[in-house]
Design a protein that fits this description.
Layout: H1 5-16, H2 19-26, H3 30-44, E1 49-52, E2 55-58, H4 60-86, E3 92-98, H5 103-117, E4 121-127, H6 130-138, E5 144-148, E6 156-164, E7 167-171, E8 181-182, H7 184-188, E9 191-194, H8 200-212, E10 217-221, H9 225-231, E11 239-241, E12 255-260, E13 268-275, H10 282-299, E14 306-308, H11 312-325
Parallel strand pairs: 3-4, 3-5, 8-12, 9-10
Antiparallel strand pairs: 1-2, 5-13, 6-13, 6-14, 7-11, 7-12
Helix pairs in contact: 1-2, 1-4, 2-3, 4-11, 5-10, 10-11
Length: 328
């Protein structure tokens, strides 16, 4: 939409931190982009950006304005998706952030299933830790977050939740592989490879160490699960994974996955959520609903507890689209 073009300019510069880099993204000259920003600043009567030796950053007024700008852009995307629904061809773009455990299997499968029904909907998927996931929502860079043990914040609105108990992962030759369930003393008896501190699983493990009063023997910490799994081939260590991130047995013949006693490490929660107060575009709202239903289907019979309801955004999206169709 042409009337939103100036807002897109400001948003792009704010995200890139540089007029030159933003100009490259927008496919215009940096001189032309700078003139447009100066014109907007003159109209407002205050600078939107502070000019720095190596880029720009939002001024205090710019910080106030950027939230309004991103809300306007997000609202237009929502309206465009509702209009597209009138033709019966769902369109739009959905931006999802998730923990690494969900990426290779669950999220990939859900997007593939959704696109079979709605091939005109496109996706962006980013791996984020529990802190960055909330930041992506509040900056409108993501529509949805699927994250384990997200930070407790008023900005996060849960749409669905499923409990996940940590699993221990090790090579098939590890001495603890003979056990079906590991207790705290088992974990203390072996070197461990831990996720980084910003990971939700690490949060639970740190809480367990604090409560038990002793430390696991950490030999490596990493946020790359591919590296961790490959390292377990070389040393008798134990690492950790969520049930939702476990590969099929046919894909994991080199590894053993074992339950961990909940008295040793408590159960955590995997959430599907969005920015509180935001009305999502139709495509994003219905994809969120599909994810929640998939979690219900996969875990309702496994002993994991499910809490879910149709997200408010789905109800709003359906109501708004129906009203437009009926001419209300």
């Amino acid at each position: 939409m042409k009337h939103l073009l100036p807002l897109h300019y400001i948003d792009t510069v704010a995200r890139s931190g540089s007029i030159r880099r933003a100009a490259d993204t927008l496919a215009i000259t940096s001189t032309a982009l700078n003139r447009r920003i100066l014109a907007m600043e003159e109209e407002l009567g205050v600078p939107i950006f502070e000019r720095l030796p190596r880029g720009v950053r939002l001024s205090t007024a710019g910080e106030l304005m950027i939230q309004h700008i991103r809300t306007q852009i997000a609202d237009m995307e929502r309206v465009k998706s509702q209009i597209a629904d009138l033709s019966g061809a769902r369109r739009g773009h959905v931006s999802v952030v998730c923990g690494q455990a969900l990426l290779p299997h669950f999220i990939a499968e859900q997007i593939a299933d959704y696109r079979k029904l709605h091939p005109a909907v496109t996706f962006t998927v980013k791996v984020c830790d529990r802190t960055a996931a909330i930041e992506q929502l509040t900056s409108f860079e993501a529509d949805l977050a699927v994250v384990f043990e997200p930070l407790r914040t008023a900005d996060f609105q849960p749409m669905g939740r499923v409990e996940q108990s940590l699993k221990a992962i090790m090579s098939a030759s590890h001495p603890l592989a003979e056990k079906q369930q590991l207790g705290w003393s088992d974990l203390l008896s072996t070197p461990v490879v831990l996720p980084t501190p910003c990971n939700g699983m690490r949060y639970l493990l740190d809480e367990a160490m604090l409560r038990k009063g002793n430390e696991l023997e950490k030999v490596i910490e990493s946020d790359n699960f591919d590296f961790i799994r490959n390292y377990l081939k070389h040393e008798h260590c134990v690492s950790f994974q969520l049930p939702i991130g476990l590969p099929a047995e046919s894909e994991a013949s080199e590894f053993i996955f074992r339950d961990i006693d909940e008295k040793a490490v408590p159960t955590g929660n995997l959430y599907v959520g969005q920015l509180k107060g935001r009305v999502l575009p139709v495509a994003a709202a219905l994809f969120a609903n599909a994810i929640v239903k998939a979690l219900e289907f996969q875990y309702a019979t496994t002993g994991e507890k499910i809490t879910s309801s149709e997200p408010a955004d789905v109800k709003t999206a359906k109501k708004n689209t129906t009203a437009v169709r009926n001419g209300d």
